Amino acid sequence: MLKFVVLLSAAACVYAASAPYTTKYDNINLDEILANDRLVSSYIKCLLDEGTCTPDGAELKSVLPDALKTSCTSCSEKQRSGSKRIFKFLIEKKPEEWAKLEQKYDPEGTYKTKYQAELKALNVNAPVEEAAAPVVAPVDTSAKSETSAKVEAEAKPVETKSESENKTPSH
């Protein structure tokens, strides 16, 4: 888990302008980490406040907003490269999670616009969202449910005073 946190830290371009981010995780096997769905899911849940965070996950979560804002100015070259791979992976393989991360960390779309050219250069193949036709269930008017029959039986029109006065009594 520690490895993935650091990778996401790099992906987020970690600590801002104050000090370079640690390079102790620069030589981890990124493919191995991204192949571990449980690990990836755990860190995503941490970042989204949907699960508990390891200390490394909490660190990532605390630096992510600032790292995005500063365009990864304190990242090493390996961290920048790793972050691009992680972004591409999340966009292509975990689009629902990516959308949630975008909503949480970029609700105004500021960073999406800011990093659009970089993502395009990565040849990111985002899943195409098909225009879905509205789902309309056929209505069977021949049979009434027990509930609708009961509601109809209990629903009686309310007569106003003028309507009742206009009726002539039938003898």
TrEMBL record:
Cite the record's Basic and acidic residues compositional bias ranges.
147-171
Q: Per the record, which residues fall in region Disordered?
A: 133-171
Please list which residues make up the signal peptide: 1-16
SUPFAM superfamilies per UniProt: Chemosensory protein Csp2
- Cross-referenced InterPro entries, in alphabetical order? A10/PebIII, OS_D_A10/PebIII_sf
Arranged from A to Z, the UniProt key words for this protein are: Signal
Recorded hits in Gene3D superfamilies, A to Z, give: Insect odorant-binding protein A10/Ejaculatory bulb-specific protein 3 (1.10.2080.10)
Query: Which domain of life, per UniProt?
Result: Eukaryota
> What Pfam family does this protein match (any one)?
OS-D
**This chain belongs to which protein, by name?**
Ejaculatory bulb-specific protein 3
Give the source species. Answer: Cacopsylla melanoneura
* Higher taxonomy: Eukaryota, Metazoa, Ecdysozoa, Arthropoda, Hexapoda
